[in-house]
Design brief:
Layout: H1 2-9, E1 18-28, E2 35-46, E3 51-55, H2 62-70, E4 77-82, E5 85-86, E6 97-100, H3 112-122, H4 127-140, H5 156-168, E7 174-178, H6 186-203, E8 206-211, H7 214-220, E9 223-228, E10 231-236, H8 238-243, H9 248-253, E11 258-268, E12 271-276, E13 279-283, E14 297-302, E15 307-310, E16 317-325, E17 329-336, E18 339-346, E19 359-364, E20 370-372
Parallel strand pairs: 3-8, 3-9, 6-7, 7-8
Antiparallel strand pairs: 1-2, 1-4, 4-5, 9-10, 11-12, 11-14, 12-13, 14-20, 15-19, 16-17, 16-19, 17-18
Length: 373
């Protein structure tokens, strides 16, 4: 038993890169007969053992990409490589992948042991090997003692463990997750998210995760892929996409963001110099500033927690229009001229509280400020 568990832990040796090259998927709309481009020339590499999350609004193409990697959809054009093999036209059962679904997809007429062993039976392995591998993964997933129960006798979290056990027992090269935690309540979802991430790191399986939950994507991923209208908008670590968004869409989609309108006055070795409400702000690390020209309009993208308030209404300044106490933080809405901006001050940082109608100064944490079009 212990040697088999070790074999499962060492699964990373069987993991593969996943590479998408110019992948496009076009659907014919049944009502109009027109073409709809769901995925538009996507290039992406997921390294062996990496956990990558596709994140974006409904209809952005993230699930379609997952289905093309799994084999449930074939791309209109482009290559889908698992390892060095193009599997774009290969059936799902020949790709060496496993998928964990939102609905768990457990067989209701089979007990837990039979559900987990199903994939091994399909592979026609010897019975003694099926027993050894199934018992090993049951132990690994902390399901010992539940083997004879049926899915309807388990909690949501236990059913999700069974679904994950069934996926990893066949030792796939790639593991795909289609919003696997969305049916769980908030507290259990958070717990299962941490368990799932710990297990993925322990096994080292190349994994692609699809979710619409931003906090889930940030907590579980090595890298996050932000999508919109079938195209990739930004790829990076969770901290990169949060602290260094390349567009208003990314900044607004990941967490909260203020967009302080201004004009790009100049750019030099010290950074970008932006005129805002009669004040020149020096931004030392403005980012790529795509689409922004000197003399033209732009905005400062600032997270609410990167805005500091002071009683000295100098430099950037405004008037408090709302103050909301949330226990661990106070959220202030400040009118900067005609622009409302949000500032979040955590309770352990509060030197004093500001009243509605009070004039305040606004200081920005410059390393976290980006200049966007």
């Amino acid at each position: 038993m212990k040697s088999e568990i070790k074999e499962l832990k060492d699964l990373g040796t069987k993991s593969s890169d996943v590479i998408l090259k110019g992948v496009t998927k076009v659907f014919k709309q049944p009502d109009t007969g027109r073409d709809f481009v769901a995925v538009d020339h996507v290039d992406l590499k997921i390294a062996s053992g990496e956990m990558v999350t596709l994140l974006g609004p409904s209809g952005c193409g993230k699930t379609t990409i997952l289905r093309m990697i799994s084999g449930f959809e074939y791309p209109t054009s482009g290559a889908v490589l698992i390892g060095d093999r193009d599997v774009a036209k290969v059936p799902p059962n020949k790709r060496g992948i496993s998928m964990v679904f939102q609905s768990y997809a457990l067989f209701p007429h089979m007990n837990i042991w039979e559900n987990i062993a199903y994939g091994l039976r399909v592979q026609r392995l010897p019975m003694d090997e099926i027993v050894t591998k199934t018992n090993a993964v049951i132990d690994l997933m902390q399901l010992t003692g539940m083997e004879k129960r049926f899915p309807n006798q388990l909690s949501g979290g236990q059913q999700q463990r069974v679904a994950l056990a069934r996926a990893i027992v066949i030792e796939p090269a790639v593991l795909l997750f289609d919003e696997p935690l969305s049916n769980l309540d908030a507290k259990l979802r958070e717990s299962m998210r941490d368990e799932l991430r710990a297990l993925q790191k322990r096994l080292g399986i190349t994994s692609l995760y699809v979710t619409h939950d931003q906090s889930e994507a940030m907590a579980i991923s090595d890298r996050v892929v932000i999508m919109k209208a079938g195209k990739i908008q930004q790829v990076g670590t969770p901290s990169d996409v949060y602290d260094k968004p390349v567009s208003r869409f990314v900044a607004n989609f990941i967490g909260k963001a203020n967009f302080i309108e201004g004009r790009l006055a100049s750019v030099d070795a010290r950074g970008a110099h932006v005129e805002v409400a009669g004040t020149t702000c020096d931004v030392p690390d403005p980012g790529a500033m795509e689409g922004v020209q000197v003399g033209g309009p732009c905005c400062l993208s600032v997270r609410p927690e990167s805005m500091l308030l002071s009683p000295q209404a100098t430099g950037l300044h405004g008037r408090v229009s709302r103050a909301t106490f949330y226990g661990m933080k106070v959220e202030y809405e400040v009118m900067l001229g005609e622009q409302p901006v949000l500032a979040e001050v955590y309770s352990n940082q509060v030197m004093r509280r500001f009243a509605v109608g009070e004039d305040v100064g606004l200081s920005l944490v410059w390393p976290n400020v980006r200049v966007l079009a």
